[in-house]
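hiii so um. not sure if this is the right channel but i have a protein structure encoded as tokens and i wanna go backwards to a sequence. like what aa goes where. can anyone help
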């Protein structure tokens, strides 16, 4: 069944919703209604009256589970082609795979199909909002923005800026970067579902002039700013060589105006105490990328400890070192890596905190990530006035039993655990954004 855009719509299914305090609310059967603009007007485990539901085009998915649309706060569009390849340390991996691949995006015949494939793949995983790094070419960025618009995805996209220590094909200049950023901001910032993100790759690839420009533009135009921090010990060492006046990696960004309450800092595994205090004072967000951190052997971010300290946190797939665009897979990785971190901290005599539960991880992938980009009031959970962004999951795909045999473990929390731990590539059957179907399997 397809839904007509611009019409009142609804969904009846089992639903798992987020509450403001990070808990999950389970509904074996619930109804969600929205208006012609895609805003939720009704959500309850009680079925509405016939009069209330009249005129709505309603999807019946009663044997399935609906989740709030998933939100990915850190990933790389050009890298999707080589996801899962080259499990080596960060800096050699960038040289071997990332930089050559991003250079290929100067070719429209590469940028066009790969951009469209990336966004369609996000939707097929139930992701309704993505924050992504693009390549460094403005032409490829234009293609990516157009592809995002065509798919209906909420997309925060950034031209990846570098003016040193990368191949010549990827280099820009501060003057060129300013021109390109302003043109893309003018065309795409706040235009429909797209947003521009100021994106210095990381401090090693940026001069002081470029970092200062990024801080200035992001503040002046109130955009997000995304970059990487403290992912790898060799990366930290190299950064401080290029900025010898700085006491820490975080201070490099802060001294150039790049730490503020719209800054997304990817990884943050090895942040020192003073750095964490600074980041907290600035209100910046540290985005956890557990699958990627494990894949490249970078370390395990102590999510629970950073959370207990009051840092703002996010969660992202970080494709391509992260090998899946599924945020549900990332929630699994988050919980598993948190268990390892807690174990090694405890047995190593390090002050630790409890590991991350499935409840915590799913919160981070939905309402927590929405709050991290200032959209918690309209995304990340089901409530009147919010956007009808929904991932509908056929959890029978994840079941251990087939045919007519009924699974004894059928409570919604148990079904959710199967969805996360027995992830199936075809389990997301329908994705809706603003109440419109933007992906339907089969």
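sure thing!! here u go:
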């Amino acid at each position: 069944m397809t839904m007509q855009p611009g019409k009142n719509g609804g969904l009846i299914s089992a639903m798992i919703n987020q509450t403001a305090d990070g808990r999950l609310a389970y509904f074996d059967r619930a109804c969600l209604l929205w208006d012609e603009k895609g805003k939720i007007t009704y959500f309850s485990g009680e079925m509405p009256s016939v009069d209330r539901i009249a005129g709505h085009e309603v999807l019946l998915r009663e044997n399935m589970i609906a989740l709030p649309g998933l939100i990915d706060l850190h990933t790389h569009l050009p890298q999707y082609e080589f996801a899962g390849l080259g499990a080596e340390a960060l800096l050699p991996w960038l040289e071997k795979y990332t930089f050559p691949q991003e250079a290929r995006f100067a070719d429209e015949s590469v940028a066009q199909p790969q951009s469209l494939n990336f966004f369609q793949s996000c939707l097929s995983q139930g992701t309704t909002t993505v924050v992504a790094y693009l390549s460094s070419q403005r032409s490829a960025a234009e293609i990516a923005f157009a592809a995002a618009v065509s798919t209906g995805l909420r997309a925060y996209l950034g031209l990846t800026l570098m003016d040193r220590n990368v191949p010549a094909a990827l280099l820009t200049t501060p003057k060129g970067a300013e021109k390109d950023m302003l043109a893309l901001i003018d065309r795409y910032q706040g235009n429909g579902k797209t947003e521009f993100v100021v994106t210095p790759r990381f401090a090693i690839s940026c001069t002081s002039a470029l970092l200062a420009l990024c801080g200035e533009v992001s503040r002046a135009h109130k955009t997000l700013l995304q970059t990487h921090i403290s992912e790898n010990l060799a990366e930290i060492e190299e950064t401080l060589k290029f900025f010898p006046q700085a006491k820490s990696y975080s201070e490099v960004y802060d001294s150039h105006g790049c730490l503020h309450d719209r800054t997304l800092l990817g990884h943050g595994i090895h942040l020192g105490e003073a750095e964490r205090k600074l980041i907290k004072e600035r209100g910046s967000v540290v985005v956890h990328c557990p699958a990627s951190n494990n894949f490249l052997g970078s370390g395990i971010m102590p999510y629970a400890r950073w959370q207990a300290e009051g840092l703002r946190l996010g969660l992202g797939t970080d494709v391509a070192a992260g090998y899946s665009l599924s945020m549900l897979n990332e929630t699994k990785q988050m919980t598993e890596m948190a268990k390892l971190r807690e174990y090694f901290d405890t047995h190593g005599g390090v002050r630790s905190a409890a590991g991350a539960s499935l409840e915590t991880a799913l919160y981070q992938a939905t309402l927590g990530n929405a709050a991290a980009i200032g959209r918690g009031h309209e995304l990340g959970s089901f409530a009147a006035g919010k956007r009808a962004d929904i991932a509908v999951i056929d959890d029978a795909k994840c079941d251990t039993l087939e045919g007519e045999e009924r699974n004894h473990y059928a409570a919604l929390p148990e079904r959710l655990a199967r969805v996360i731990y027995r992830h199936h590539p075809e389990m997301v059957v329908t994705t809706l954004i603003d109440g419109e179907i933007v992906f339907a399997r089969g």
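oh and The radius of gyration is 21 Å.
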